[in-house]
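Input (structure):
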């Protein structure tokens, strides 16, 4: 049975209006026939993908993938690729040019922030990102774990979620700030030090954390500059406590010393790395610690501060970020695509991949960082990130070839999660 893409509109329009797709038919077999298939590592012309239930049943040359009684969906002119991975999101934040981080943490209620997050999850999924690692609720408690439950129960549409709940900061190092010193202001993460870190890690795990996030440095130096927060021993305590339950640790770190301590302590991914040096990136490569560069967040913040992109010289912070990103590439550091979305609009996640290419990464490597490489870093390589037999049927079709033009990722024609079409272009 042959059908055109428009036959998916009935299923897709339901989700686009905020409702749930119909129950998946486990016996349904669908063959998707795009112009080309990116399988997570390489591009293949003339390939197709067969899906049975919620799993990929076969991938390869179109003639060999057909099956009797299968529904055939023609995706003319498109590239079919694994559902994209967002390695660093904050679904409980919205763009800082709408409201400052301080105001979001202190003035927006938990109900309001959660309601916004439902829209953010939907926008992310519709953009082709079927898995996200959400790195801290920024004052919203355990709402990320609760949103994950809502997605899994099909109460709201959204990507697969890995969550960190509150995140961990050293006492006195975080924010909001700027208030009279006699007030105890609610913080955007959970404070802990020394042996108390064991209890806090275990408590966050008990409240649903899939990863543990720690701020290995922050802007609390003597002159307001970024400086390390936790000692190497404290970071090791966090990593060892989390690892005993099978959970990895991710660290916010932008200073060479904060990055170095985190790497030596056994932390698996470094977020930002803005001021990373050749030496620390070499150490990361040796220890197989991945970098989640979040170049899109810095780009957005510079523009909020008045930089008109494409006019005049780049701000110094952008120049430093370009240099550190190139140094990471030169050192052979594993790159996980992660944008810090929430600083800018959810659904604009492809901005990170575009900027990584602009900063010196090849389009092919950028795609791998958001598919097969990303899945490996997140310990999900047995389920997502590649189009091959037995993997979950999370796929996205885009108009054009993103290995030639990375911005093709913005031209989403079809999104499938767990074998169900959840979005398509009208």
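Output (sequence):
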């Amino acid at each position: 049975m042959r059908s055109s893409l428009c036959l998916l509109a009935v299923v897709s329009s339901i989700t686009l209006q905020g409702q749930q797709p119909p129950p998946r038919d486990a016996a349904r077999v669908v063959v998707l026939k795009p112009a080309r298939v990116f399988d997570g590592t390489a591009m293949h012309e003339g390939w197709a993908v067969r899906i049975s239930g919620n799993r990929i049943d076969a991938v390869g040359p179109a003639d060999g993938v057909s099956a009797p009684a299968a529904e055939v969906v023609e995706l003319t002119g498109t590239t079919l690729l694994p559902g994209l991975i967002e390695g660093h999101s904050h679904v409980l934040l919205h763009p800082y040019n709408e409201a400052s981080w301080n105001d979001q943490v202190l003035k927006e209620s938990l109900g309001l922030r959660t309601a916004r997050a439902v829209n953010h999850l939907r926008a992310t999924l519709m953009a082709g990102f079927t898995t996200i690692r959400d790195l801290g609720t920024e004052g919203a408690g355990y709402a990320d774990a609760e949103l994950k439950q809502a997605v899994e129960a099909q109460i709201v549409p959204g990507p697969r979620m890995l969550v960190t709940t509150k995140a961990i900061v050293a006492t006195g190092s975080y924010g909001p700030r700027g208030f009279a010193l006699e007030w105890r202001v609610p913080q955007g993460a959970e404070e802990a030090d020394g042996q108390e870190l064991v209890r806090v890690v275990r408590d966050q795990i008990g409240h649903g954390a899939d990863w543990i996030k720690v701020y290995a440095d922050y802007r609390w130096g003597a002159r307001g500059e970024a400086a390390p927060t936790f000692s190497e021993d404290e970071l090791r305590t966090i990593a060892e406590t989390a690892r005993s339950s099978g959970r990895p640790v991710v660290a916010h770190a932008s200073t060479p010393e904060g990055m170095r301590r985190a790497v030596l302590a056994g932390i698996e991914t470094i977020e930002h790395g803005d001021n990373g040096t050749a030496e620390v990136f070499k150490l990361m490569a040796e220890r197989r610690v991945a970098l989640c560069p979040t170049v899109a967040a810095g780009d957005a913040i510079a523009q909020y501060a008045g930089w008109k992109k494409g006019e005049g010289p780049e701000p110094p912070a952008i120049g430093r970020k370009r240099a550190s990103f190139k140094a990471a590439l030169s050192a052979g550091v594993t790159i996980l695509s992660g944008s810090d979305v929430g600083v800018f609009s959810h659904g604009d996640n492809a901005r990170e991949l575009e900027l990584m290419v602009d900063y010196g990464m090849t389009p092919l490597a950028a795609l791998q960082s958001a598919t097969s490489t990303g899945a490996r870093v997140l310990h999900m390589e047995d389920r997502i990130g590649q189009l091959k037999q037995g993997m979950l049927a999370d796929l996205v079709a885009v108009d054009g070839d993103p290995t030639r033009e990375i911005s093709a990722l913005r031209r989403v024609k079809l999104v499938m999660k767990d074998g169900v079409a959840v979005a398509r272009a009208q």
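Notes: Residues 1-18 have pLDDT under 50 and may be disordered. The radius of gyration is 21 Å.
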